[in-house]
């Protein structure tokens, strides 16, 4: 049962990365929304959705989703890097610095 459960949520992630590669960000976000609906604690789904939102220029939503990914998995450096870069690009330099400093502690 565990293997099926794991594969059940890995498949949408693979599909989403494929859609992202093709530039179909809105379709990827729709699949992420469904994945999050059924597995709301899957941190990587929020992270990948944040990346897609970035590509669509929706930076505030992107930052929110990186933050949710961090809440569910505070040990993944990629989540902090994504959020920190987004904050920096939006001119929120001190928030980006604070985020990285807190992560390093």
UniProtKB/TrEMBL annotation:
The residue spans of each TPR repeat are 43-76
Q: Cross-referenced SUPFAM superfamilies, in alphabetical order?
A: TPR-like (SSF48452)
Protein keywords: Repeat, TPR repeat
> InterPro entries given for it?
TPR-like_helical_dom_sf, TPR_rpt, Ycf3
- Presence of keyword Repeat: yes
Which SMART domains does the protein's record reference?
Answer: TPR (SM00028)
Pfam families to which the protein is assigned, alphabetical: TPR_11 (PF13414)
Record's protein name: TPR repeat-containing protein 08
């Amino acid at each position: 049962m565990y293997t099926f459960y794991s594969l059940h949520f890995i498949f949408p992630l693979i599909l989403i990365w494929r859609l992202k590669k093709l530039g179909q960000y809105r379709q990827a976000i729709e699949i992420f929304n469904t994945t999050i609906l059924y597995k709301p604690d899957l941190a990587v789904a929020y992270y990948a959705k944040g990346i897609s939102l970035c590509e669509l220029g929706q930076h505030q939503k992107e930052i929110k989703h990186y933050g949710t990914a961090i809440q569910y998995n505070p040990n993944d450096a990629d989540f902090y890097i994504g959020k920190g870069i987004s904050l920096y690009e939006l001119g929120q330099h001190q928030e980006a610095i604070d985020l990285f400093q807190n992560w390093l502690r």
